Structure formats: C-alpha cells, structure tokens
Amino acid sequence: MASLRVPYKTVGDVGIPTDIYIPKQTESKPAPILIMIHGGAFMLGHAGINSTDQIQDCLERGWIVLAIEHRLCPGVSVLDGPMADVHDALSWAQNGDLVRVLKEHGKELAVDAQRILVMGTSSGGHLALSTAWNSDRTPVAILDFYGPKCFADPFWSMPMPDMPEHFYNPLSDADVRAVYDEQAVFTGGLSLEGQASGADFSNTKQRQGFAMHQIAIGKVINTIWPLYPSNLEQIDPILNVSADWPPTAIVHGTADTMVPIRLSKEFEKRLRDNGVKTAFFEIEGEPHTFVGKMVKGSTTWETQRRGFDWLEERLKESCKQIE
C-alpha cells in the first residue's frame, strides 16, 4: 500500500509531514478526504502506527487518506503543538495545497477538498474532536476512537493501576530535560496501539519511559497542559460543544481502563443535548488501544467498521446538501 510523504507545514526548519494514500479512482466524482491521527498519549507514536486495515478500508470506499504526523508533547503544549498541527493539516487540505502537491508529483486525481472527514485513535481521537472548534471550516464529520476528554473529571489525576512496576519510577532529571528539549519532534516511542513499525526508535528510550511514567502516576493532562487544572476550555472537547458542532461518532471498548467509557458516554450526552447528530458504537470486552490488535473480519472489526459506515452516510448527506 504505497503512499506519498510530503510536509503540510514547517516549524522552524522542520517539515511536519503527512502520508498520502490514494484510492484507485474508478468514478468521475471527486474523492473526499479522511484525515487520520495516530494515538500515543500526545507524547508517543507516529503516522506509521495507524491501522493498515482501516486505511485500506477507507481507500476501498474511494477516500483519500492523510495519515498525518504532529509534534509531540511535552516540548510543546497540546494546544500549541498537536492541536495546532491538526488544525493546520485540515486547512492545508481545504485550501487546495493537497491538490497542488498531488499535481506536482504527477498524481492526476479529482479531489473534493470541501468534503473532509477526521478520525483518530486515543489521543488522536481527542485531536480529531479538536477540529470541531476554532477551525475556519469544520470537517463534514468526526470519528473518535476512545479519545480522552472531560479533563475536569477526577480520573485524570488518579494513578493508573496494574502498570508494570518500573513505570512508576521517575526518570532522572537529565532524561526529563532531554524530553522537554525536543520541541519539534514528531516521531517517538513504541506504539501504544501494538502496531508493528519499521521506524528507528533507538534514540527514544527516554521519551518512552517519560510518557509511560506520566500515564502510570496519573499526570498525562498535567504534562501536556502545564496550566492544568486552569483554562481547560482551551483543550477539552466537552467544554466546547455547541449546536454548531459537526456530526460525531464515538467508538469505545467496554473494558477500557485508560480512558473509561463513561467519559465518552458523558460527552455523547453533551452532544445530544446540543442537538448534534451523534452515534455511539460500543465494542464489547475490548480494552484501550484495541485498534492495533484487532483482526480483520472479527466481531470487533465488523463493529468498529460501523463507525466508517456512519461517516460514509454523512458524506452522502453532505452531497445532497450541496445539490
């Protein structure tokens, strides 16, 4: 499954790239775009850990897939780094830059830059939701796989039980400083999603240990948002829901302990109370980060796939609205 890798923005002298996956275009209709955002507690991961089966499913639907990189915390805050990058990727696709890049690389493809979907897993789910506010043009619809939200909930300051013992031990001051000094890094640590990866992580042992320690001691939100618990309205999806929020579906496992399903249920209620078109797909017995481990054709696969079917329905509705 070949892709084209190009920068969608530059920070200093660092290009922040996206992998572009192109469907076989058999129809004359322009292809819609899906922006896919990886997980990793805002501090780990890279675009290569996205589910290749999900990408292939989207390509078979005729969608262009942008598997984007974003800067990693804590060298930048979640607002100034990951959230800003995702917003810029959305604008890049909407404003014709994707079409320009495809032409420059000899890809003659009809693109519908007005019909863009956004989805993500775990922290990527949160970042997908963040495109619903402070965007010049919001996406047609959003698909959130077990993304963190409701940051005022006491859960976010509680230690995580049952983690390997060594993750509760802090890193040295020098290792912590080294992680914070990485202010424009977009690849780091092993995948929390369990995906195989060919990336070289030989220099990311500090980042991996740092991130897993924050998860273990219940300090993820403190770490990515130094103002915590203040100004949560700048980063928390539930505090930004309004009647203008785009249609949103949530996929969440019932056995998730890293982001409890009740938080997504609370968020779903807020969406419905504001009249937002919403769907919720529970994955029975699945823990956090199940996407990286699911088997194509399994019950879990078929259930989560209903989220993509739901996105496809929103695309059809958007076509009728344009007509």
TrEMBL record:
GO terms for molecular function: hydrolase activity. It comes from the Eukaryota. Keywords: Hydrolase. It comes from Curvularia kusanoi. Gene3D superfamilies: alpha/beta hydrolase. The keyword Hydrolase applies. Residues 19-271 form the BD-FAE-like domain. InterPro entries: AB_hydrolase_fold, BD-FAE-like_dom, GDXG_lipolytic_enzyme. This is BD-FAE-like domain-containing protein.
